[in-house]
Every structure is written in structure tokens, then in C-alpha cells.
Amino acid sequence: MDEAESRQYPPQPEVEHGFPKECYCGAKPFLTNCYNRRFFTCPNVDDGEMHIHKWWDVAVMEELRDSDRRYEVMAEKVDYLTLFNDESNATEQKLVRLENVVNEICKENKLRKFTDLLVVGVIIIFTCILFMLV
Asked: What is the pTM of this model?
């Protein structure tokens, strides 16, 4: 049995997408060129096994697309936080208005209690005067 046939390397996602960081065999890929086109390859490429070969421009485009996606996600998060901050300010303003309304109601209730006490006092005085006359 040939040694090349006996080795099976599992697919590795970091090799498949973007800049390759590790070859299927575990070696670190390097950048070289062929006919004025750059590509990543493995230093062990001559051993007959399956090794990384990825065009540099393809890897760059994949990395740019990934960074665009990350930027979009971050922009959505910033927009959400800005919206949340605007809603928070609106909520604070509503809370201040509510506190003012509650304070006005309390003032009215204090005045109402005072007038109720005056009315009760006057009724008691009239009742006392009536009993004294009778």
C-alpha cells in the first residue's frame, strides 16, 4: 500500500476560506507566484499528498467580503444602540412629565384635605352652636 494513499486529512474550514493559515498536512502555507499571479501553497507540496493551493486574489476577495459582513453587523448594532439611546431619552422625558403630574396631584390633594378640614370644622362649630341654642 502506498504511503500517499494511507493518509487522509480532514477538511479544515480555515484552509478553505480567506487567507489560509494552515495546510491540510498541518504546515504553514507561504505565498509564491507563477506567471505573475500570486498564490498560497504548502512547503510540502512535492510529497504527493493533498496540499493547499489557493490564489491570493481569491483569498483577498473572501477576506474583504467577510470584513464587509462584519462591518454591516457592527453598523446594525450601532444603529440599534443609537435607537435605544433615543428611546431612553424619550422615556426619561416621559418620566419627568409623569413626576410633574404626580406632584401637581399631590398639591391638589393637600389643598383638598385642607378645605375638607375647614368644611368639617365649620360644620362642627355650627352643630355646637345649634346644640347650645337648643
From this structure: 0.47
